[in-house]
Amino acid sequence: MAEAFLVAENLRKSFNEHKAVNGVSFTINKGEIFGLIGPNGAGKTTTIRILSTVLQPDRGDVTIGGYSMRHDADAVRSLIGVCPHELALYADLSALDNLVFFGRMSGLSGKETRAQAMANLELMGLVERAKGKVDKFSGGMKRPINLAIALMGHPELLFLDEPTVGIDPQSRNNIYETIEGLRDRGVYSISIPLLPAAANVHSNTNSDMAALDRSSYRDSGSAIFRLGTSQSRQGLFRQAQD
User: Fold this and answer.
1) Quick check: helix, strand or coil at residue 85?
2) Tens digit of pLDDT for each residue in 204-238?
3) Residues whose CB is less than 8 angstroms from the CB of residue 174 and which lie 6 or more positions away in sequence, other chains included
């Protein structure tokens, strides 16, 4: 029987009169890669911000690893890593120094931080550029550094907000292959992929997908669709784009 690692219950968040998230509930089991699919404005990023404790929901709760976001936010933060849509990098620092800085922020010791930073750079295939300044990197190199930073501190659950936006197909595929490999190391993930990339990456996997659809938010308040087959996923991608 699948074991739940994240449980979101009746999440609601409004900004003035705009209902960004309206009654979202879903479960992510251990070992899953879970995607939030939908058009711009559907509430995907707001949902990620709630799940990662950046935003407090107006109603509802999230439990991650047995800890309630409302009552044990610090414990939740110790289990998660976040790869934001925007590049969270210091351009005047080297790739290694960026990882070390964020590693120390996550509570790692100096020695452990450097060792993990080098291991993450090796995972991304960027060890040879460890001492290079980030402002000299291409977008295809900055995105993997962004992901490597999210992995500092040994997170068990990784949130990714369009981690492959603005990069070439080869770099994009390398990032998704890395994400698939992380699951084998016990790191689960919830991602907002670009729609074409999601169709390509997940069509041959057993990963569950979810869609946040604009009309579902507005009309029914229920925005989650669980998909099982490649065919049903493709159909929902088309629905989300309509």
Assistant:
1) coil
2) 444 443 433 322 232 333 344 333 333 333 333 33
3) 125, 144
